[in-house]
Amino acid sequence: METLLEHVYQIRLPLPFRLDHVNSYLIQDEHGWSVIDPGLDTPTTKNVWLRTLRHFNLQPSDIKRIFITHFHPDHYGFAGTMQRWTHAEVIASPRTFALAERYFSNEQAGRDFHYYRKCGMPEQLAEEVTVLDSQLLEQISPIEGNRVNLQEHETVMLGGKPFKIIVGGGHAAGSTGFWNEKERILIGGDMLLQKITPNITYSYEDDEEDNPLQQYFDTLNALQRRNIQTVLPGHGPVFHPDPGFIETVISHHEERLDHILGIVQDDGKDALSVYNICLRLFRKVFNTDSARFALGETAAHLRFLEKQKLLHLHESGGVYYVVAP
Ligand SMILES: [Zn+2]
Questions:
Q1: Metallo-beta-lactamase domain: from which residue to which, for each copy (predicted)?
Q2: Residue 85 C-alpha to ligand 1 middle, in angstroms?
């Protein structure tokens, strides 16, 4: 584990995925210790935490607060187990709690399958991907104890410093970052990552206004104005973004939008499904494991273009097809 700031330690927790780790932060406070993002609920996570507590000579009851940056399993999954173990309060945005409840339920598999089919994914592949999705439920432990809502603009003390709560979207609705204005430090979950762009996903089940890529652009623009010096991210090492960093992330998505528009303009008369476009974009990396991310990313970009009226989606036989306007 690495000491980053005084009283703030990065704990690297292994993950059984292609993205092979998630960062948790252990923070010493005047009145006890806090954890940001306890990890995925696996025996490995538990072993790392047991080792970490021993290293710091801590009892589980010394952990008083468990913060969650967003509801994704790699960040949230261990929260319930850690809470039962420490009796700490779990603190997150109201949206994070609500989404965790919705997605980590037995009804989600049916919604996932329906979504993959609407996108035009072949039935057998849609079944395989849905099974993979639902296996994740075994690595998520629900929160049963005390939960506390975190509101935007609220200030929390972490390691003796004030951090203002920033709530953003795109990668996960209700994503929370912790911002220290004086030292320009962001503990950002997956809002900003150094080497990978956070997956932006859309699932055709949210409200009419939902437009995750626009929400991510809004989040990035708000972060851009803060002149961030140090990011403590959810994956990868701590980094110091250069002034053009956020601009590069925005350009990456703009290039993808252009790429999609090109595909639709060239071949749109062939009634391309969301899945067809996804394969054109991600053919080299597409497999059962990556299908969910690739399709969600495609759908989010199509949604953005649809909202800009640069293309239309129409449904036929239960499948969405993309048409140039
Ligand atoms: Zn993550």
A1: 21-235
A2: 23
Q: How many Cβ atoms are within 10 Å of 223's Cβ, its own excluded? A: 23
Whether residue 216 is contained in a domain is answered as yes
Instruction: Compute, in angstroms, the gap from residue 323 CA to the centroid of ligand 1.
Output: 33
User: How far apart, in whole angstroms, are the C-alpha atoms of residue 253 and residue 297?
Assistant: 10
Residues within 5 A (CB) of ion ligand 1: 74, 190, 234
Strands 63-67, 32-36: pairing is parallel
Whole-number Å distance, alpha carbon 292 to ligand 1 midpoint, is 15
Distance 215 CA to ligand 1 centre (A): 17
What average pLDDT does the segment 16-34 reach?
A: 92
Residue 160 · residue 7 · CB < 8 Å: yes
Q: pLDDT tens across 81-120, in order?
A: 999 999 999 999 999 999 999 999 888 899 999 999 999 9
What are the tokens at 15? Answer: 């993950």
- pTM, whole model, 2 decimals? 0.94
CA 19–ligand 1 middle distance (angstroms): 9
Total structural domains within the chain? 1
C-alpha–C-alpha distance, residues 189 and 178, integer Å: 9
What are the distances in angstroms from CA 227 to CA 114, 145, 182, 186, 220?
Answer: 42, 38, 11, 10, 11
CA of 315 to the centre of ligand 1 (A): 32
Q: Which domain holds residue 211?
A: 2-108+136-246
Ligand 1 center–CA 126 separation, angstroms: 23
Cα–ligand 1 centroid distance for 318 (angstroms)? 32
Residue 189: CATH number of its domain? 3.60.15.10
